[in-house]
Write a sequence for this structure.
């Protein structure tokens, strides 16, 4: 009962503050319940760091409303927190330090991506495509800035700081790097694989508007986020096993 009460309260708060849609709040509550059941506050802490810091950065300005459509929906919450939830569920069936590392690494990746997006889009200078370093318009998938990359590392380190709670103190630097590397993978996939469309006016869109000009239709921003978070979880598991 306690896991659901804790998670439901957090979900309601996020919904009330306009950080998540109703569906996003429900999914976030499920992810939170899984984390609480796996290890109480030790597992809930990194999840809270991710949600709280992401929420604070998102509310610092209005750019997210333009780039991602406002509050995070269920699909977006799954793409960022799904791998962590899977690790938490598996841990309840058989506690393994490797699953703890996978859980933490996936959240580091998600937080790194959020910090990179928020800081890079709002404050970054001279954005460029990560695949070829060519100057590009900021705020698009696959486009990074030096400040955004710094934000990605700090965001990963923020979540990794919870490593001692999971008895992963020795792996804190490694998990931080995994989260940062997964964010780079996210940007690379966003630049080379994510679907980009061009409307009749020649403007680029990540939503299916107009003609597909780059990437694959099946790969949108949520798919890219899910793949990078899953890759981080996999790397964390392998290095801790």
């Amino acid at each position: 009962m306690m896991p659901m009460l804790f998670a439901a309260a957090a979900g309601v708060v996020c919904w009330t503050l306009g950080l998540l849609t109703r569906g996003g709040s429900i999914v976030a509550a499920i992810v939170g319940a899984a984390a609480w059941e796996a290890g109480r506050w030790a597992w809930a802490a990194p999840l809270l760091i991710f949600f709280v810091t992401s929420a604070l950065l998102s509310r610092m300005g209005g750019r997210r409303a333009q780039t991602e459509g406002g509050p995070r929906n269920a699909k977006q919450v799954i793409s960022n927190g799904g791998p962590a939830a899977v690790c938490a569920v598996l841990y309840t069936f058989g506690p393994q330090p490797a699953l703890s590392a996978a859980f933490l690494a996936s959240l580091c990746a998600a937080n790194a991506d959020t910090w990179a997006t928020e800081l890079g889009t709002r404050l970054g200078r001279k954005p460029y495509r990560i695949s070829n370093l060519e100057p590009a318009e900021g705020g698009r998938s696959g486009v990074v800035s030096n400040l955004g990359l710094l934000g990605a590392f700090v965001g990963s380190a923020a979540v990794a700081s919870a490593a001692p709670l999971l008895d992963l103190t020795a792996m804190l630097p490694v998990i931080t790097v995994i989260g940062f590397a997964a964010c780079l993978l996210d940007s690379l996939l966003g630049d080379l694989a994510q679907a980009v469309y061009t409307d009749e006016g020649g403007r680029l869109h990540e939503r299916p508007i107009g003609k597909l000009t780059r990437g694959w239709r099946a790969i949108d921003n949520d798919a890219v986020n899910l793949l990078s978070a899953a890759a981080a979880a996999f790397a964390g598991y392998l290095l801790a096993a």
